Amino acid sequence: PMKNRDEVILDEFVEKKSALIRYMLAFAIAAIALGLRAALLPASSGAKFIIFYPAVILTFYLGGNGPGVATIVLTALAALYFFFPPYDAFTLTPDALQQTALYLVATGLCGYFVNRMHRYRRSSIEAQKKLSKKETDQDARNLSLAIDGARLGVWQFNPENRIVSISDKFAEHF
Question: Which residues pair with 156 in a beta bridge?
Answer without folding.
Answer: 165
